[in-house]
């Protein structure tokens, strides 16, 4: 009797432990995606050759503008380019020669070394939405973003398993002065998360602040010898490089920090309406920008960027998840690989105002396109709404959940002895079922990707639990992650030094909202 009671207690205790394990909060980050599937390529060798030749013609005969930047013009002149006013014409082959010093892949170090990422090759690193001035959630609707919203997104990024990167301006905190908000954003990334993050590009001085804060976090020598930031340098398409973005690029390249050189393309407005014409312009702009980074510091890490949408010819609004944008993205991936450069594109793009069916269709098209086109750094991978004007909390967790499906698809089809499952086929035989066989029992926990959000319950159970739709489930998921957030540890001396740096910088200037 005593033995039986003891056994019951042991079983009960084991069950309780298993239930506790299932319900406990686990802060887990999946490793960046390593593709075991081929890239989808749409351009033939002939088409690639035509586009590359045309891009060289654009650079040599039409040229690009480097505005309000005499230093850049002098660097190009010294390199052998023809300068006329602010127009830079780059002789055929010169940009490609300069690009040859850029690395084909690089490691961006996180303050937690286990979360460092390798950008390039067959890898895909997912980072959240970037830049929206508005946020949206069920409780507050659409509103201007605040620093509290920003910090909440950083916490969600940290708690989301399938996000590898904390991102940059996840939303624009409009309640903080323009000239100071980059300090608060960087501080949030550095203290509320231990994933990699992005630096500020809104002014060269803010890029320098980003470098100096990283030197506090990582150590000055480490920063100079390693990449700890990836930052977004947009080109003002068509073919214009402004002094603000180029000034930020100069700071980062000089300090060995990575830049995404990315045209901002809305087909029909900032690039031709044709796919081949857009690809020609994208390639010319990227080649000029990356070549310039190598004039600053040969070997500086860079990423070939392509932000692509088309235009609605009735309203003038950008459209997303369209066939044309997909074709441009697939083609740009091929061009990036031929240059031997990491590739940035795609994301959870949609034009919808709400996380509805339109958002789901367009986002699914965009995310899968990113995986199949060979993207190495996917900015905007979750949270994007309303053409990038809004960062949505509910859509953030919806998209972050779906990134897990990309991880599963990228694994491809392994054919190990266990994967062949011949023992299971023999055990079950004709007319049986696999639920109880040894192979299923050994593999069921890891065999299938499992959503942390979607509802697969029977109708009766779903109805009894309130008949909640995906938006309601996402609202609950946001609350669960935020309520269970646990900050990563940080050396108190480093934290104090960061706080002191931010306070001193803020005290040194008056507030400006311009």
UniProtKB/TrEMBL annotation:
Query: Gene3D superfamilies, per this entry?
Result: Trimethylamine methyltransferase-like
Q: Which GO terms describe its biological process?
A: methanogenesis; methylation
**EC class of this enzyme?**
transferase
Q: Per its UniProt entry, which superkingdom is the organism in?
A: Bacteria
User: Which stretches does the entry tag as region Disordered?
Assistant: 1-21
Q: What is its EC number?
A: 2.1.1.-
**What are this entry's molecular-function GO terms?**
methyltransferase activity
Entry keyword set: Methyltransferase, Transferase
Q: Which family does it belong to?
A: Belongs to the trimethylamine methyltransferase family.
UniProt-recorded name of the protein: Methyltransferase
Report the source organism.
Answer: Parasedimentitalea maritima
């Amino acid at each position: 009797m005593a033995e039986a009671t003891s056994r019951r207690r042991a079983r009960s205790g084991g069950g309780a432990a298993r239930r506790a394990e299932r319900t406990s909060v686990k802060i887990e980050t999946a490793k960046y995606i390593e593709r075991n599937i081929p890239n989808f390529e749409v351009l033939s060798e002939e088409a690639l050759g035509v586009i590359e030749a045309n891009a060289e013609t654009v650079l040599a005969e039409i040229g690009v503008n480097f505005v309000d930047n005499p230093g850049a013009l002098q660097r190009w002149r010294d390199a052998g380019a023809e300068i006329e006013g602010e127009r830079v014409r780059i002789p055929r082959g010169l940009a490609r020669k300069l690009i040859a010093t850029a690395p084909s892949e690089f490691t961006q170090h996180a303050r937690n070394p286990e979360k460092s990422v390798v950008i390039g090759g067959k890898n895909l690193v997912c980072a959240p939405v970037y830049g929206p001035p508005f946020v949206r959630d069920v409780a507050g609707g659409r509103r201007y973003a605040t620093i509290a919203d920003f910090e909440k997104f950083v916490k969600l990024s940290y708690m989301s398993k399938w996000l590898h990167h904390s991102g940059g301006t996840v939303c624009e905190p409009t309640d903080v002065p323009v000239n100071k908000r980059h300090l608060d954003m960087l501080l949030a990334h550095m203290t509320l998360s231990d994933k990699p993050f992005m630096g500020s590009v809104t002014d060269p001085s803010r890029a320098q602040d980003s470098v100096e804060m990283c030197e506090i976090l990582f150590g000055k020598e480490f920063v100079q010898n390693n990449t700890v930031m990836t930052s977004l340098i947009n080109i003002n398409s068509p073919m214009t490089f402004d002094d603000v973005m180029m000034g930020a690029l100069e700071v980062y390249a000089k300090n060995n920090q990575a830049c995404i050189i990315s045209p901002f393309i809305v087909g029909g407005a900032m690039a031709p309406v044709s796919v081949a014409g857009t690809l020609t312009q994208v390639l010319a702009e990227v080649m000029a920008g990356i070549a310039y980074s190598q004039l600053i510091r040969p070997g500086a890490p860079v990423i070939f960027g392509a932000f692509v949408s088309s235009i609605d010819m009735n309203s003038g609004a950008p459209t997303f998840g369209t066939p044309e944008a997909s074709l441009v993205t697939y083609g740009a991936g091929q061009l990036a690989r031929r240059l031997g450069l990491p590739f940035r594109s795609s994301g959870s793009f949609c034009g919808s105002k709400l996380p509805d069916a339109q958002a789901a269709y367009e986002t699914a098209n965009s995310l899968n396109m990113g995986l199949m086109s060979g993207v190495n750094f996917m900015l905007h991978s979750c949270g994007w709404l309303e053409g990038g004007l809004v960062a949505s909390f509910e859509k953030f967790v919806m998209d972050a959940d779906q990134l897990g499906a990309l991880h599963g698809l990228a694994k491809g089809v392994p054919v190990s002895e266990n994967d062949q499952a011949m023992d299971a086929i023999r055990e079950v035989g004709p007319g049986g079922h696999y639920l109880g066989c040894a192979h299923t029992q050994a593999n069921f926990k890891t065999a299938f990707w499992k959503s942390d959000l979607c509802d697969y319950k029977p109708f009766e159970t779903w109805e009894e639990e309130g008949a909640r739709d995906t938006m309601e489930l996402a609202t609950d998921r946001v609350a669960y992650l935020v309520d269970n957030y646990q900050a990563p540890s940080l050396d108190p001396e480093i934290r104090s030094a960061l706080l002191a740096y931010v306070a001193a910088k803020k005290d040194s200037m008056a507030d400006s909202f311009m």
